[in-house]
Amino acid sequence: MIALESATVRFGDRTVLRELSLRVEAGRSLAILGPNGCGKTTALRAALGFQRLASGRRVAPRIVGYVPQSVAIAHPYRVLEVVAMGRAARLGLFGQPGREDRTAAAAALERLGLSQLAEAMFDRLSGGERQLVLLARALATGSPALVLDEPGAALDLANQARLLALLDGLRQERRYAILFTTHDPNQVLAAADEALLLMPGGGARQGASADLIAPEPLGALYGVPMRMVGLTGTDGRMRRAVLPAFAGEAA
């Protein structure tokens, strides 16, 4: 489980989060949405323990698997070495990855269908491949909690689809507490059980994705009229998608 209980965060005289509560149990996935400047990143950092709370409480495992939007690695490491870095918290300050850590890293790559990249140089990968490798690194930690900061923000549509399919697969295993931020409501429909809307002007709404990823709540969140449409998925099933009014008229 990973949670914030009545968490308040202040930067000087400015209160960014006021008594925010969120809770993600193992086996569940929660997505945080909101307009720019609403505190999504601050909430994520607070859940990770990176941001000091003025009041309230954070609840999380000692080790959390974290996937940032991007990572700068100056030294040219192989992919397997980057994934093994996810084991660092288990090794101590001067510990070096051993056979068990390399095995865990290889297993994480295999689980995500990335074994063919194990010997590739991380700095030569595409942006989409790097993001998937960082997800493998988070899995290699062995943590039951995975936290992702806008995981699809810099990815093209094909890599977004691949990443969301992997996240949904992890969700379906019902072993992990998954928390991620996003600007795209359709990513919530694809990979989250619940949504947390950080409303403009303060306040938050948390509930089932099917209830909150809907025209009325999203219109209030973004200040833009929204509508739902039905689409046929690749599996032939009808799925819901949400569009802003400026996307145009339906055919």
The strand line-up of the biggest sheet is 5-6-7-3-8-9
Determine the mean pLDDT: 89
The succession of helices and strands, N to C, reads EEEHEEHHHHEHEHEEHHEE
Total E-strand runs = 11
Reported for the largest beta sheet, the result is: 6 strands, mixed
- CA-based gyration radius: 19 Å
Number of helical stretches of at least 4 residues: 9
- Spatial shape: globular
Task: Give unreliable regions as ranges.
Answer: none
Helicity, in percent? 25-40%
Question: What's the quick description here?
Answer:
This protein is of the alpha/beta class and 251 residues long. The protein has nine helices and eleven strands. Helix content is 33%, strand content 27%.
Model description:
Helices cover 33% and strands 27% of the residues. Helix 6 links the parallel strand 6 and strand 7. The N and C termini lie far apart (44 Å). It has a six-stranded mixed β-sheet, sandwiched between helices. The protein has a three-stranded antiparallel β-sheet with strand order 2-1-4, with helices on one face. It is α/β, with parallel strands linked by helices. The mean pLDDT is 89. The protein has helices spanning 40-48, 79-84, 88-91, 99-111, 127-140, 157-173, 185-191, 209-212, 215-222, and strands at residues 2-11, 14-24, 29-33, 55-59, 65-67, 145-148, 177-181, 194-198, 204-208, 226-232, 238-244.
